[in-house]
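Supplementary Methods. Inverse-folding protocol.

Structures were first reduced to a discrete structure-token string of length 287. This string, shown here, constituted the complete conditioning input.
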């Protein structure tokens, strides 16, 4: 049995080259991960901890994924070329196949492009509370194709990025706390406003999460029950829910302590026709 030494040597050389390509690609991936980590560690020292953490998690994960996909594609084409497969013909067929797929994957392309601009324009980060595509929640994950939100009830919403046409980010600036208090018509409205403002001043001294106010703005409307007084405050991001609850409790206690009553439903009961006739008969009878 004759062994073709030249062919065997060629196989060994191709195997050595493939091994070298794999080792080199592994080293490039590790080096890229290290550089990405260093870049975001440096950014963390120049930004606030919250911004560095959320922004870093978002971009670092995307950069690592892009690096692995890119290196994997290059390694695959290089290995195929070393094994004698014509990669040019393969790429030409892949281009035609990709063109055919592209016509049926327009939504996917739109999702990826929109996701890229969401991340590039820094519209929101992981941990932000946003409203998008008719849904609201805290951002748990941002990808090139989808964004995952978790609302306060615990439900998880996965939104294709192509549906995110408008976004409201409620974590970038302060939040507004606003409540309405209705008192009875018989009460002194100016006195009630003063009592409410005193309770608001006490609350402002005890809650550092309040950045402005609270302030009794005055009568916002007149209803059948009585005048409605509006109370406003500015808080740190996402703190307005707790502050509104505390404001309602403080105002209720202050009004109750000051003897100012809140309205209650009044029901006027008309006498029955039989009762009216009996009353008329009794009045007509001689005493």
């Amino acid at each position: 049995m004759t062994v073709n030494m030249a062919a065997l040597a060629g196989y060994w050389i191709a195997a050595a080259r493939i091994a070298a390509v794999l080792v080199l690609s592994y080293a490039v991936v590790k080096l890229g991960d290290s550089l990405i980590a260093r870049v975001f560690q440096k950014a963390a020292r120049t930004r606030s901890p919250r911004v560095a953490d959320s922004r870093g998690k978002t971009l670092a994960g995307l950069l690592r994924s892009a690096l692995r996909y890119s290196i994997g594609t290059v390694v695959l084409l290089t290995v195929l070329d070393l094994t004698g497969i014509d990669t040019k013909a393969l790429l030409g067929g892949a281009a035609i196949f990709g063109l055919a797929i592209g016509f049926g994957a327009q939504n996917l392309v739109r999702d990826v492009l929109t996701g890229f601009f969401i991340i590039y324009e820094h519209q929101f980060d992981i941990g932000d509370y946003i409203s998008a595509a008719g849904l609201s929640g805290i951002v748990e994950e941002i990808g090139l194709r989808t964004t995952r939100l978790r609302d306060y009830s615990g439900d998880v919403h996965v939104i294709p990025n192509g549906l995110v046409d408008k976004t409201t980010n409620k974590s970038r600036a302060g939040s507004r706390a606003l409540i309405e208090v209705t008192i009875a018509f018989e009460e002194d409205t100016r006195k009630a406003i003063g009592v409410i403002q005193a309770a608001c001043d006490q609350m402002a001294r005890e809650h550092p999460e309040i950045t402005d106010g609270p302030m009794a703005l005055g009568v916002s409307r007149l209803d059948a029950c009585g005048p409605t007084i509006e109370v406003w405050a500015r808080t740190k991001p996402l703190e307005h829910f707790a502050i509104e609850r505390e404001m309602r409790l403080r105002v209720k206690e202050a009004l109750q302590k000051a003897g100012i009553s809140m309205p209650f439903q009044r029901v006027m009961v008309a006498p029955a026709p039989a009762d009216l006739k009996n009353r008329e008969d009794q009045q007509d009878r001689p005493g």
